[in-house]
Here is the input.
Amino acid sequence: MSRRMDMPRAAHALAVLMAGLFCCRSEYNAAKLKVSMSSTQQVLAVGPFASVKDPWRPPRHRYLRRLELRWALAFIIPYAAVFFAFFVYPLGYALWMASSSSLYADLIADRSYLPAVVSTLLFVGLGVNLKMFLALLLSGFFLRPSWWIKALLAVFILPWLIAAVQAGISFHWMLQQQGLIDGLLFALFGIEGPIWLNDRWLAIGANVVAYIWKWMPFWTVIFLVARMTIPRDIYDSAEIDGATGVRRFVHITLPLLANLYLVCTLLSTLWTFGDFTTVFIVSSGAPTGYSDVLATLGFRYAFDLGNPALGVAAVMSALPLLIPIAILLMRRFQMSEVRL
Here is the structure.
């Protein structure tokens, strides 16, 4: 009977204890919320100028950063000085020299200028396009795995490795009367060869051939490496479908290399407009300056006639052709990646 009377009392005590714990918990949460609100009000009272301080860094760290800055300046300043001295200043000075409109009137009036423009267009147009197309074809030949083809490739790139001056001198002496070419024509066919450098079109053709012979190996290697990146599975699938030989080249290789081919052609065009060595050494502008290009004509104006401003104007007159090519090249790089 006593146990039954103790059980309600214990339940009542337990309920009182739980109510006390709940009240303490509520008071604790209220106090915590009050402290948080007071902290927020203090932060807001400081205003917008309050900022968190940077973490403390040891003096050695700041010393290393100053040391890195000094090394960076030590590498950048010489390059910037050389770039300004040998590119920015000469280019700006050349533009200033060729800024007079009367110089271009003198160019048009000179009888050597228009033939030089025609020779430049022929030299660049024929030289670049024939060189790039032949390089694309030869890259497929050198892709074969035979050992003798690899040995022939090593011999084929020798013209690109030698200096342009030596190559031009060799061509110049071969084209002389009683030179190597005329001697071979007489020995093999019993005919006397022409005087190559006394005819304008033969001289321009000689310049183009010498230029192609010198620079075609470089672009052949470029296209050869590009062909190696084409997956072999594509060619195997095309062979199963019956595409072999010319059809495989036209429908597979050429579309895959078209983007690279265009970029390389644009780059080569820009470089060939400034080619001075080939024409100056091979034909020397013979006959009487009719095979000169704008680069060699500008040299003759500046040094032979003693008129540097006219020489710079002759070279700068090619800018209306060079600027659109450069813009097209840059847009090509921005619009899409140069990839296979």
